[in-house]
Design brief:
Chain lengths: 96, 225
């Protein structure tokens, strides 16, 4: 069984989670060029590697960030998105 | 079950659709048509000792969330659990479930009135949001309850894994549910809440397994006395 650790609810089967897409920080829309904005909106990097991703724990309605290597499918860290958030889970045995 | 007409419309338990074929005795509890007996008292007590499934959806509930929700409840004399994903009893008759950090579900037990009191407070407060609840709720009792839960849930819900004050939000039979363990009248039971629209499905699944294990449906009357 594949497992993932929700920062609020602990380690659960992957079946309780929904993938929410890659988390990407966009350019400052007030200062970036049209080309930069268009690249952010339309382009994605499909190269495997370490990515930040949105995941959703559906029984509790919790959205969080998982840092996952899409080549090895190993999750290194999950945490709630927030400036002062220290509630992270590291070194998980996720995606075994 | 009573047949409603335009003058006597009353709510019905969200689980009722699955219970209609069981020849249960129905009664209005908290204004909601609820199955209160599925058999004689002796039969129900025997089921309850092995594996009883009881529909308690008629209990009053109140949901509130937001950054100031805990403070708002404290100002209204509701004691809230200190830790996320835990539960406590307030005012002796109201279960208070803390879901995550800032969401609360309150459920009045048979003699409680806290939910009605909170619902009557319609003043809007910043960072306090009412959450409408439409749950199906169940009590599972008996010696075989863990055998049933092991068929329905991938988490270990035994006493040593599920703390006495812990609330778990997980999937039961594939649907999202809230689970806790409680000592009720000296007996260890499990409480389950899920979205009301899944109530009939979950009832059918749980009763089917309960019958296989020697238990079955138990009416609400067993817990009212």
């Amino acid at each position: 069984m594949k497992l993932l650790t929700c920062p609020m609810n602990g380690t659960r089967p992957l079946s309780e989670f929904i993938f929410g897409g890659e988390y990407r920080e966009g350019p400052d829309q007030n200062t970036c060029t049209d080309a930069e904005w268009a690249a952010f909106v339309h382009n994605r990097s499909g190269a495997p590697g370490d990515k930040k991703e949105w995941w959703y724990h559906s029984p509790s309605g919790t959205w969080f960030i998982a840092e996952r290597n899409t080549l090895t499918d190993k999750v290194s860290r999950t945490y709630l998105l927030g400036a002062n958030n220290n509630n992270s889970n590291t070194a998980q045995e996720a995606s075994k | 079950m009573q047949v409603s007409n335009m003058k006597t419309i009353s709510q019905t338990s969200p689980v009722a659709h699955a219970q209609l074929k069981s020849n249960a005795k129905w009664a209005l509890v908290n204004g909601i048509n609820t199955a209160v007996e599925f058999g004689s008292a002796e039969v129900e007590q025997a089921r309850k000792k092995i594996l009883g499934v009881t529909d308690v959806s008629c209990l009053s509930r109140y949901g509130v969330k937001g950054a100031q929700a805990a403070k708002w409840l404290a100002e209204r004399q509701v004691t809230t659990p200190a830790n996320p994903n835990s539960w406590s009893v307030s005012d002796q008759n109201t279960l208070v479930l803390r879901l995550g950090g800032s969401e609360f579900v309150l459920e009045d037990q048979f003699a409680g009135s806290t939910c009605a009191r909170l619902a009557s407070d319609t003043n809007r407060v910043p960072n306090v949001y009412k959450v409408p609840r439409a749950d199906a709720a169940f009590i599972l009792s008996g010696s075989e309850v863990l055998n049933m839960l092991s068929e329905l849930c991938s988490l270990d819900l035994r006493e040593k894994s599920l703390g006495a004050e812990e609330v778990i939000m997980t999937q039961i039979a594939g649907i999202s549910a809230i689970v806790l363990r409680q000592d009720l009248n000296g007996e260890q039971v499990y409480r389950i809440w899920c979205d009301g629209t899944y109530g009939p499905y979950l009832w059918d699944v749980m009763v089917e397994i309960a019958v296989e294990l020697g238990g079955g449906a138990v009416g609400l009357a067993c817990y009212q006395s």
